[in-house]
Amino acid sequence: MRNANxxxxxxxxxxxxxxxxxxxxxxxTGGGGAAERKSVGKGEGRVDLIAWAGYxxxxxxxxxxxxxxxxxxxxxxxxxxxxxxxxxxxxxxxxTGQYDTVSASGDATLRLIAAGxxxxxxxxxxxxxxxxxxxLKMRPFNSKNGKMYGIPHxxxxxxxxxxxxxxxxxPDSWKAVFDGAPKYSGKVTAYDSPIYxxxxxxxxxxxRPALGIKDPYALDRTQLDAAVALLKKQRQYVGxxxxxxxxxxxxxxxxxxxxxxxxxxIANTATAQKAPVKAVLPKExxxxxxxxxxxxxxxxxxxxxxxxxxxxxxxKVNAQVAEFFGEAPANAKACRETADPHHCAVYHAxxxxxxxRVHFWTTPVPQCLDGxxxxxxxxxxxxxxxxxxxxx
Amino acid sequence: xxxxxxxxxxxxxxxxxxxxxxxxxxxxxxxxLAVLLLSAFWTTDPFTSDVVHSFTADNFREILTDPVYRTVxxxxxxxxxxxxxxDALLALPMAFFMAWVATGRLRRALLVAVLTxxxxxxxxxxxxxxxxxxxxxxxxxxxxxLGLHGPGYGTTAVVIVLAYLWLPYMILPLHAALExxxxxxxxxxxxxxxxxxxxxxxxVAPAVxxxxxxxxxxxxxxxLGDYLTVQIVGGRTQLLGNVIASQVTLDLPxxxxxxxxxxxxxxxxxxxxxxAGALDSL
Lengths: 392, 282
Fold this sequence. Notes:
The structure holds two protein chains of two kinds.
Chain A: H1 4-24, E1 46-51, H2 68-75, E2 78-83, H3 87-95, E3 101-104, H4 106-114, E4 118-119, E5 143-144, E6 147-148, E7 151-157, E8 159-163, E9 188-191, H5 197-207, H6 221-235, E10 238-242, H7 245-254, E11 259-262, H8 264-272, E12 277-280, E13 286-296, H9 302-312, H10 315-325, E14 328-329, H11 343-346, H12 352-355, E15 358-360, H13 380-391
Parallel strand pairs in A: 1-2, 1-3, 9-10, 9-11, 13-15
Antiparallel strand pairs in A: 3-13, 4-13, 5-6, 7-13, 7-14, 8-11, 8-12
Chain B: H1 3-6, H2 10-39, E1 43-44, E2 51-52, H3 58-65, H4 67-101, H5 104-115, H6 122-133, H7 138-143, H8 155-180, H9 183-191, H10 196-225, H11 228-233, H12 240-248, H13 252-275
Antiparallel strand pairs in B: 1-2
Helix pairs in contact in B: 2-13, 4-8, 4-10, 8-10, 9-10, 10-13, 12-13
Family (chain B): Belongs to the binding-protein-dependent transport system permease family. CysTW subfamily.
Keywords (chain B): Cell membrane, Membrane, Transmembrane, Transmembrane helix, Transport
Pfam family, one (chain B): BPD_transp_1
């Protein structure tokens, strides 16, 4: 063998590297070691955010929607935004330790807290925190051991969007994308994330009471299998799955998708681009989100991060974001600042009864979230595997 | 006859010259492959997605036993094979025309035409196809008068776009091989009484085969690893790349184990190509 020497060298180097990798592997995963801050000092000149589309607008999408430049001007913190399409993406981006703050939904917050990726937030250092609706403070998805792990941002529901020229009669039920999907075969769309299984579970909760689903995030094996079967049936009629909001906008604009799940901000963007679409909250209720700005345990720019937290929930800015994204603001005073005086009423900002119909994204865990003790529920790893299986 | 016999310091200089690239190859390239393979034996905390460093072969067991991964792997392999065949079919006549028929300005223009798409961004091209293949895109507009409907988003669209994206990688080696083939070989073949078919089989084919296989290595391996085109025009289709990408965020070790599948496929393909003798002339 004429090439023997280089190969031996390569193998030797490989073995060496394995040894190094194994050696450094013992670091383990400490949980929640970081302490909260005692004071906010001068800004570091920059802040790196992970945000949902529409949360950190700098006027490039819509010149009227710009709350990033005023923040930069006021604080001197230059904002770098990374848009994430799913909660899973947010969790993995936060693990890199390169970001200061994240607008995490309830299915990401607990995972971030448990992994020690985020630090508790000293709410006294965020003056606008006192005006946040009390219904959003110290909730199971944004606090632990009596400590807030972030500042609530706002909440809303995942809606059903349809092309008004292609879909009639106007749908008022998720049936349109499940049992009624064959009617729009090849033009149905769905959110590309394991958490979408909860949408199917919610539909089964209302249509097949015999399954006994009480909470779409607390599914035992039988219930998960039923949801998976429903989603596999739906897949035959799905044109494409989306997680990039721009992709969904173009799909609805071009008529490649005519019905499917959406966010209000997508409906607003599509409408602004003259696509004939409408978004509704179906009668079964919906899944939804309640978002919290969290600070990384390894934040390189913690002062700017705290300044951003206070800025994004200040009445005026919180009102702007809420109207742009199409959600209920977290700051009670924001309701007086909205361009549409009825915004808070339309989005039920302080209507806790309304939000009982909206099932906020939560990470499924083995201890059933609905309180059942006699069964083990399926966890998110199982949901992830099920989702790969559903997509085939 | 070698340099080393004449100059004693030459061997050291040669070593110094080759050491940095070799080190880079071994550490950055083979090293990262080794780490990837190693992490495939780890596992994750199901709740926090943190990697847990305990040694287990569960990930490989899951990939081999769960039918969904087999389906996805076979689909990916099928698409890579179809894309390669399609590119070979398109590139052969094109390269032949460029090398032997076209002359002067036309030949240069064709070469530029083949090379220009390589200058445009991958995403731009894929998104352009998304617009063209859409419900109100140009493909449907052209086909509508004939009473036909375009493929829409899906597996067919993925094959079309990938074949388009990798076509230059097939044309260029073929063109180079055909251009190198001396005209007097063909004349000699004709003088010895061989017909067109016999000349193609006995003179052209052996000269082109290594280039064809080299080109197919590009089209095959690039198609195996692609996941963005599928995301853009694939509709509900998922390939190995997409499954890996979706697991990277949640279960890094499983993603690492899945990445071994295309690596194994490409290594098998290279071995087959080597067996066919196509790498001898490289």
